[in-house]
Write a structure and sequence with these properties.
The chain is of the alpha+beta class. The protein contains 15 helices and 16 strands. The protein has an 8-stranded mixed β-sheet with strand order 1-5-6-11-10-9-7-8, sandwiched between helices. A 5-stranded mixed β-sheet has the order 13-12-14-15-16, sandwiched between helices. The longest helix has 18 residues. It binds histidyl-adenosine monophosphate.
């Protein structure tokens, strides 16, 4: 086949009609579980002010320092949103959502953009679903939000996951921890991988994230964040773990879990799947009690997560989980001649008004080709209409699966379909 003149950009995929039913099934589950957990949907623009993301996510992070799709237009700087938390926090502040009263339990589904090197499970345009509970400091919010995440995966059938959890404390304790990490890694600087050597200078926490084999022994003996937690943070962490146990959600403590975004305080977690390969994080999140203040709002505690839908689909493929039914239509009207075409076009509406899916041939093809097309469309019934049928007011009604035919009136046709 000839090469097309235009293709999608690298790492940006079309979601084709054979794939959309799977996406719709997943989105339905995400929404339905959100309803049960009392999360309301929020939709924010794809483009946000660059400064919001830089301030919110953190200048030093990979996302801000090298992965933003940003541009200037007039005096404004735009960025294709790389994540949903800073935008939701902005919306909360901008629209005074606190005035609605109570905590704001919000969820979203939508595309995000990061200029990463594409590989399996890592795209430049990808989709997240996420939830944010804004206005609650209590550990029960952390646990309930994780329960929502787990409910979605369990309902889909993905149960073989590991919830890794840690506390990253507050900025004061992180400062002390950073100093401790620096003095621990410094004498070993030359043993570190090249990438960790760079991280040592910019952000030593990220060394803990390293997957390079030469770093692993050093990481295992590094000081852990939990030793530096304030009493309040340590207590919060303890209570989150107790709540998770209460909710029957199993977890693994990972004292080296650091997240790639700067806004986290206290709880940090990731949901890992062994079915994903190198990009094994189905989702992640945590508490961000200082973000809203950082972007100009009142001090407001908050906790949330986001999870990648493409990765969820990869896990479904690996586990042979099929969420969508094969494409099908209820009735295919096979037409013979002009009069029948007019009749069919007019009567498609009767089926559709009755909630029955119906289609017809648009190309004036032979009966044989139309029957073939009805099979391709996976039609349950074919309704064959020609001059004779129209004169007599009786139509050939064919049950495609049983290969049985009847000659019946249109009213009977409607009745028969309604009964099945
Ligand atoms: P994140 O860990 O950067 O967190 O992303 C969450 C999830 O999005 C990842 O675990 C992964 O499944 C998916 N993901 C991230 N980047 C890509 C990519 N390039 N290709 C495919 N999937 C990807 C956040 O975004 C935070 N906003 C989560 C959060 C919400 N924290 C608090 N509230």
């Amino acid at each position: 086949m000839a090469q097309p003149a235009f293709k999608t950009h690298q790492g940006m995929n079309d979601i084709l009609p054979d794939e959309t039913p799977e996406w719709q099934a997943i989105e339905h589950i995400i929404r339905d579980e959100a309803r049960k957990f009392n999360f309301e949907e929020i939709r924010t623009p794809i483009l946000e002010p660059t400064e919001l993301i830089a301030r919110g996510v953190g200048e030093e992070t990979d996302i801000v320092s090298k992965e933003m799709f940003s541009f200037q237009r007039g005096d404004d700087n735009y960025v294709l949103r790389p994540e949903g938390t800073a935008p939701v926090a902005r919306a909360y502040v901008q629209h005074h959502l606190e005035q609605r009263g109570g905590t704001q339990n919000l969820f979203y589904i939508g595309p995000m953009f990061r200029a990463e090197r594409p590989q399996k499970g890592r795209q430049r345009q990808f989709h997240q679903f996420g939830a944010e509970i804004i206005g609650a400091a209590d550990p029960v919010a952390d646990a309930d939000m994780i329960a929502y995440l787990q409910a979605v995966y369990h309902r889909i059938g993905i149960t073989n996951t590991t919830l890794k959890i840690n506390s990253v404390g507050n900025p004061q304790s992180r400062k002390k921890y950073r100093a401790a990490l620096e003095s621990y890694f410094k004498p070993h600087f030359n043993e570190l991988s090249e990438i960790s050597q760079k991280r040592f200078k910019k952000n030593p926490f990220r060394i803990l994230d390293s997957k390079e084999p030469e770093d692993q022994d050093l990481i295992k003996k590094a000081p852990v964040m939990t030793e530096f937690l304030s009493d309040e943070s340590a207590n919060h962490y303890k209570k989150v773990k107790e709540m998770l146990t209460e909710l029957d959600i199993s977890f693994e403590e990972d004292p080296y879990l650091v997240r790639g975004l700067d806004y986290y305080t206290r709880t940090a977690f990731e949901l890992i799947s062994p079915d994903l390969g190198a990009q094994d994080a189905l989702g992640g999140g945590g508490r961000y009690d200082l973000l809203i203040e950082e972007i100009g709002g009142q001090p407001t505690p908050a906790v949330g997560f986001a999870a990648g839908i493409e990765r969820l689909i990869i896990a479904c493929e690996e586990l042979d989980i099929q969420l969508s039914k094969p494409k099908s239509t209820d009735v295919y009207i096979v037409t013979i001649g002009e009069r029948a075409i007019k009749w069919a076009a007019a009567h498609l509406g009767d089926f559709r008004k009755a909630g029955i899916s119906a289609t017809m041939d648009y190309k004036g093809r032979s009966i044989k080709s139309q029957m073939k097309d009805a099979n391709r469309e996976n039609a349950r019934y074919a309704l064959i209409v020609g001059d004779n049928e129209l004169n007599e007011g009786k139509f050939t009604f064919r049950d495609m699966e049983a290969s049985e035919e009847d000659s019946i009136s249109f009213a009977k046709v409607m009745q028969r379909i309604a009964q099945t």
